[in-house]
Fold this sequence. Notes:
2 domains; globular; six-stranded mixed beta sheet; Transferase(Phosphotransferase), domain 1
Amino acid sequence: MGIRIRDADQLKVREDVFDEVTLLALYKLVHKKWLSAIGGSISTGKEANVFYGERDAVGIAIKIYRIRTANFTTMSSYITGDRRFSHVKKAKKELIFAWTRKEFSNLVRARDAGIAVPEPLVWDRNILIMSFIGEGECPYPQLRNAEMEDPQDIYSRIVKCIDILYNKAELVHADLSEFNILYGDQPYLIDMGQSVTRDHPRALPFLMRDIKNINRFFKNRCEVQKDTEIFHAVTGLKVAEP
């Protein structure tokens, strides 16, 4: 393939990750010089594995959606109603390819709006290559594991991100929590495959869920606004107090 495999003991060629389709996509990306080395695993999520890699000695993150074991039903619920992907066939492989393309598109929109997210570089089939968020080869910690000197400031920044994401990028993250935010020099939003456009039929419930998740995490760490106040400030819509 013409690629250096670093930490080969960590890179087990498991059938559920490195199947024939994935290996073919990797080959194409190597051939087009999008990556030159694959290192160890950074994270293993519900639907995908992320590996550290290099492109001309610069660190990158390689996200591989698992074709065989990804949750087809969950993915389908986020794709349905997204006008950008209304043409996608219901076959599992095509859905996962669309999901990868969807995350790439969402990251572009978020980044263009000024949100701190990984820079999307390229996608092919079920593989997404992004800039690496961390120092050296060590990724920044998830917010839940990060040391926060000023939780109030971080909370305010994240609430502002929710606002900008909705009003400028016209997106709702739809899975925002302390697990999908990295914290280093600032908060970074990650895992945006499920993010939906504002006109998605479930956009507003997803937005409220994001707000509730962030408030739940910060409520014992700093002063938080009411869920309904944030929702109103972001959308201009009033909702009744629970």
